[in-house]
Amino acid sequence: MSVLSEFKAFAVKGNVVDMAVGIIIGAAFGKIVSSFVGDVVMPPLGLLIGGVDFTDLAVTLKAAVGDAPAVVLAYGKFIQTVIDFVIVAFAIFLGVKAINRLRREEAVAPSTPPLPSKEEQLLGEIRDLLKAQNKQP
User: Within a domain: residue 73?
Assistant: First the structure.
């Protein structure tokens, strides 16, 4: 089998396509969450703590000299990223929790046992006839 045909077999498998769709949707979801955190959550939070914008929090380790840029420790961006992560993780947790609840409800739902097939019914009748014959003296 050639490398090209092996790659084609790998690339068109359902799992790979599902994974690609999941990654694309995850990236889009990440943008939504980043916007939610940056544009909705952080402004009121910054107002509550005195108008501080976390993304602007930084410590200059070395000032700019000539053409060399300043060396800055931008810990505010890190705080923003951690908050983004916590919100994404919580949203995923809620989603997985809801899916697990639905699965449990499906598993608990009583299902009617399947009717025996014609063969099983015939075998049951034969069994009953043989029992009846053995009981007769």
Answer: yes
Residue 18 belongs to some domain of the structure: yes
Phi, psi (deg, nearest 5) at residue 46: -65, -35
Q: Is residue 118 part of a domain?
A: no
pLDDT by position in tens, the chain (length 137) = 688 888 877 777 767 778 888 899 888 888 887 788 778 877 787 778 776 667 788 899 999 888 989 999 999 889 888 887 887 788 778 878 988 888 887 777 667 778 888 998 899 999 988 888 887 76
pTM exceeding the 0.70 threshold for the entire prediction: no
Is 58 in contact with 16 (CB distance < 8 Å)? Answer: no
Helix (H) or strand (E) holding 60: strand 59-62
Q: Work out whether strand 59-62 and strand 71-73 pair parallel, antiparallel, or are unpaired.
A: antiparallel
CATH value at residue 74: 1.10.1200.120
Give the separation between CA 34 and CA 48, rounded to whole angstroms.
20
Residue 63 is encoded by which pair of tokens?
Answer: 């000032």
Dist CA 71 CA 59 (whole Å):
9
**14 assigned to some structural domain:** yes
